[in-house]
TrEMBL record:
GO terms for molecular function: DNA binding. Keywords: Coiled coil, DNA-binding. Residues 47-112 form the HTH CENPB-type domain. InterPro entries: HTH_CenpB_DNA-bd_dom. This is HTH CENPB-type domain-containing protein. Residues 238-272 form a coiled coil. It holds the Pfam family HTH_Tnp_Tc5. It comes from the Eukaryota.
Length: 277
């Protein structure tokens, strides 16, 4: 953690604010510390993400998820399609090299071979059912399974049954379930208790990960919770809220783009059928 970040954390927990003393203690610039603490200046990494990047980190992650979803459907997007997706989300033009740079940044999450052209025969062969059939055949040929008669199976089964169902094992299982001796706390102690409906929102404020598919009620609770909290925890809540809203906005734009394509497909199909009639 940089010195300026340590100084900001110290100011959040201190009872009184003394910029000069804090800057001297953590060996950082007093003016920068004051402007950062008062919200007049951003950290360099936040400023770069906000002003230089076409998409925020959360929006890029949502775009990666959408690309993977399309690829699992068997319709991996091309680089030009990725560029259109990004422009729909950002509402601004992106450069012609942006899609390639985006794929390179997320090459560990996106298989770049999806964007290579490959013939229809290869595409048909590249599916999960054919892979599964191959490995099932390979397993059946290499495991060396032998046929057993019922008599031979019973001899093996009875030996295993006698070895496992001992009085000690049976007594231990009764004890672990709290039935004998009767002790409900054995089971109840393993059950998490939710005191109120706000527990899901409150427990999620430990980090700034975006909520997944939040409802309107969850968003309202999150906003109310952020407003009511102190300045120490509201920073994390604010980041969580911002990333959640960014994620929602990206999802809406991608769905709008997908719906537009579906509507155009339906219109073309209707025209084709009318010409056929």
């Amino acid at each position: 953690m940089a010195a300026i970040d340590k100084a900001l954390e110290f100011l959040k927990t201190s009872g009184s604010i003394n910029y000069a003393a804090t800057a001297k203690k953590f060996k950082c610039d007093e003016t920068t510390l004051r402007r950062r603490h008062q919200g007049k200046q951003r950290a360099r990494r936040d400023a770069d993400s906000l002003y230089k990047s076409r998409l925020s980190k959360q929006q890029e992650q949502d775009l990666v998820t959408y690309i993977r979803k399309l690829s699992l459907r068997g319709i991996p997007p091309t680089l030009s399609m990725i560029r259109n997706f990004a422009q729909d989300i950002a509402k601004i033009e992106v450069g012609k090299n942006w899609p390639y740079s985006f794929v390179q940044r997320h090459r560990n999450e996106i298989d770049c071979t999806w964007f290579d052209g490959f013939d229809i025969a290869r595409r048909r062969a590249d599916n999960a059912s054919r892979y599964r059939a191959y490995f099932d055949l390979w397993t059946s040929k290499t495991q060396g399974l032998t046929g057993l008669s019922k008599r031979e199976f019973w001899v093996l089964f009875w030996g295993a049954l006698e070895a496992s169902f001992t009085p000690e094992n049976i007594a231990n299982e009764w004890r672990r379930t709290g039935l004998k001796p009767f002790d409900p706390d054995v089971v109840l102690s393993q059950v998490s208790k939710n005191t109120d409906d706000d527990s899901d929102v409150e427990s999620g404020l430990d980090d700034s990960i975006a909520l997944q598919e939040p409802t309107a009620r969850e968003l309202r609770r999150l906003v109310d919770h952020v407003v009511k909290q102190s300045s120490v925890s509201s920073d994390t809540g604010a980041r969580k809220l911002k990333r959640t809203l960014e994620s929602l906005q990206a999802e809406v734009e991608l769905l709008r783009h997908e719906n537009q394509g579906l509507r155009e497909t339906i219109i073309r199909e209707k025209k084709r059928r009318q010409r056929g009639v």
